[in-house]
Request: fold
Amino acid sequence: MIKIRPTYYGELSLEALNQAATLSPSATRDIIGLGWRHGLHATGRFTEWDSLNLRLVDVVRLRALDSRIPMESFSALVERSRADADESPAVAAAATVTLRDPDAMRWITANPDHVAASPKWHQVVVGLGGLTVSTPLAEEALISLMRAKCKLPRELSTFVQLNPWFPRRFAVRFRRRVGGKRIRIRERDATARAWSHARTLLGTRVPYEWSSLHGRGRGRPLDRWSERLLADYADVFVRVYEQTPIAATAASLYAIAAGAINVRGTGDAIAAGWDALPLEVERRGRAMLGLPGATAERDNADALAHASQTIGSDAVAWREIISRAFLDREGLVTATRHLAQ
Reply:
């Protein structure tokens, strides 16, 4: 079996966030956005919790970058953040990485009343619907929220029904509890096995964020029954998202199924919302569908990664860079140019 390893574009010293938190809240948001979008690997430690003034999407991306953030601290950040309804899709997309950690799902199961009482948490737990690893833990977390009579967003019902890793009985029960349009997947369990086999066959074409280490289907091509199931599954997505782009939260479900049987995207618009994903994840997902690769300006990410590698956790150096880049408005490229010497 091909082992899919994490791929990072560069490093992100969390000391940059420590200094930005005390100098400029907007700088903190920009740095988190760069780290998330460009796949930077967090190094060092982040300590300035009380200085943060973030949007909800920034908080969720921050823990996706650094899963070492304790869940209690993360929850406090969620409650202090500013939630914007327009950013709900981006929050859910980032949450598929943030909540991939089994400890995060267990925390939700252990604290359902707290989550149920928080509208901000409701946006975050939508990401549980897009998980394809540790799904029994995600199911347990969602059951605990149903028992707490949590008023969850209806799009979560869509993701749970589209995700074949959730058992049929649970998907039906969840739809009835939350509401939403009924979605039927043919031979749900068999489709999940075919999808898992497809992920194995695609190997390193699958980004790490969508991977799972298992040996199902190793060394064997998809049989005709699996191909037929995956074709039917891809058709379900096309019907559900006939009028809108496929949600980034469910991008892995569609891209892997369609990519394994060489179903090409019906147009670039099908992945229009995938820019909420890390750039490399978006590129690989689009490549599976035969769509043009995504592009994004990398100059600032290059500067941030170079500074992280060069000065590490030097607080004084980072304070100077953040001050020049954001307070003096020189930009990260100019503020880090002296590091080339």
